[in-house]
């Protein structure tokens, strides 16, 4: 089974937030992504709402429920009380728990499962009681003991943090080494009964090698690289539309 693609809308929201205007529309781009076959939408609402705003969440929930009932909503974030309340209000199919400090620019590491065993155990139990699938963000280096603890928290899946892999875009040998490690980590997780997702800095260029090393990869969530491509591949047609609006016969 090919890995499912969940489109992360954070980067679209960040562009929208440059002005007090409703475009680019977060739900509008979400609709285009789902209509094109994406299996779900991901958001990572950060406490300062610098990209996804809390007010974006219900319209995304409604879009999925009303127009794409097969699709999944994946909410990512640090499990403090306000994030957990947002999750409980908007009932995503999947919650991805990420160890982010509120001041962090972006996610840059997985959980220290040894230190956070109790925190994660309590949060996972609370979320599972509501029926949400729970995934926990994990570093890519194979650490069987850490993954065993991840399993003990009751989580269903790990999401492999692929930032270091994405950072190898100019060094194919290093990328191969990191992909082997990610593959080994995924194998250990799968043996323990955890499903495996992956995300961060994934692109059209680096996905094939990752998928080759993790054949059972369940889902990738992609925002930054996918939004960059959407701009690049949509630019020519957009310029033609604006030239027509200027009165040119294009
Ligand atoms: C967990 C993860 O890797 C993504 O959610 C990433 O953090 C995207 O968030 P930003 O768009 O805020 O960088
Ligand atoms: N979980 C990772 C994610 O949702 C998107 O990360 P990125 O593609 O924006 O780096």
UniProtKB/TrEMBL annotation:
Pathway: Cofactor biosynthesis; pyridoxine 5'-phosphate biosynthesis; pyridoxine 5'-phosphate from D-erythrose 4-phosphate: step 5/5. It comes from the Bacteria. The keyword Lipid metabolism does not apply. One of its GO terms (cellular component) is cytosol. Keywords: Cytoplasm, Pyridoxine biosynthesis, Transferase. Its main location: cytoplasm. 3-amino-2-oxopropyl phosphate binds at residues 8, 19, 201, 223-224. Its EC number is 2.6.99.2. 1-deoxy-D-xylulose 5-phosphate binds at residues 46, 51, 106. Transmembrane segments: none annotated. Homooctamer; tetramer of dimers. PANTHER family: PYRIDOXINE 5'-PHOSPHATE SYNTHASE. This is Pyridoxine 5'-phosphate synthase. It comes from Sinorhizobium alkalisoli.
